[in-house]
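Entry 14. Ran structure prediction on the chain below.
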Amino acid sequence: MIPDHHKRRLLKYSVIAAISFVFFFAAYSLSTTEINNSIENFLLNSLGKTDTWSGTYGPGWFVQIMNDFSALGGFTITSSLVIIISCYFLLKKKYEKLFRLLVISIAGGLFLLLLKYIYSGAFFNVINLLFQEKEMSFPSGHSMMSLIVYLTILNLIFEHSRHIRTEKFCIISALIISFVIGLSRIFVGAHNIFEIIAGWAAGGFWIGLTSIVHILTKNLRSQFEIEKIKENHPPQ
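Output, structure tokens:
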């Protein structure tokens, strides 16, 4: 029997996963349309190219800022954050949170590689893909992994917080960080808008899916513990 509060959470994450699924395929179907060309022309007319040889938009100082934001969603920063927070959970003996962080992050990275493979139609060099995405840009790994990593870390740290405002602040902060990282990838010429949306959608789907699995496994574990207690202490 699934408790009512678990049912509500299951419904919420199911909706998130379903909406993300729809947005992903909508972004894929629109990625080669005239809409994308219109957006690129708008950026070109509004900001201009940085120089003749680059694919970036806007003046040099603006591109540098966007590169700094972009790095927050790269493999080096996100993997470093996962390692640091994993060590924190290990020191605090929060082994369940440590396991969840590693599984969600590592499996999320593998899911990203699978999507890259499916939508590229060719084999790829994993090492090169971790640090640059120019050859296989759909979906955006920076926008996808930033959403997964930042949202998971903040959620695990402040999970079961007594202050609802704190939880909301953490969720909004993670979403803003991922949003800025995604936009920065457009300005530096690494992705178009639909590749970014697909990355966010894939990240949202992964968060929804892993949250559903966590709730179900937690509920099954609770039921198993209850049955075990009943077996050890049968009613008189």
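The CA atoms of residues 89 and 95 lie 7 Å apart. Will compare against last week's run tomorrow.
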